[in-house]
User: Which sequence fits this backbone?
């Protein structure tokens, strides 16, 4: 709770109190939060946890265009540079 307090500029007690108020509301609406297995104690721990893993392969992004209204099964490719 200390780390969240640091990140939001409040005390750990404020974070704990908010958690105690919010959790029952979430559970009443079917949202059950599992405890994290990560132990993050400093902002640097958070940065390391969120940093991309250089050993992971990168996924090519889609071109972001809306699908055209062509015949079913037709796939219009993304137009990259020079095409």
Assistant:
């Amino acid at each position: 709770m200390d780390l969240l307090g640091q990140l939001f500029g409040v005390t750990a007690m404020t974070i704990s109190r908010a958690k105690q108020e919010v959790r029952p509301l979430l559970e009443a609406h079917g949202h059950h939060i599992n405890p994290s297995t990560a132990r993050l104690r400093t902002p640097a721990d958070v940065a390391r946890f969120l940093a991309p893993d250089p050993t992971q392969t990168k996924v090519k992004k889609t071109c972001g265009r809306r699908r055209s209204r062509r015949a079913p099964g037709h796939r219009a490719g993304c137009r990259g540079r020079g095409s």
Notes: Residues 12 and 22 are 15 Å apart (CA to CA). Residues 2-50 form one domain. The mean pLDDT is 78. Helices lie at 2-8, 12-28, 43-50.
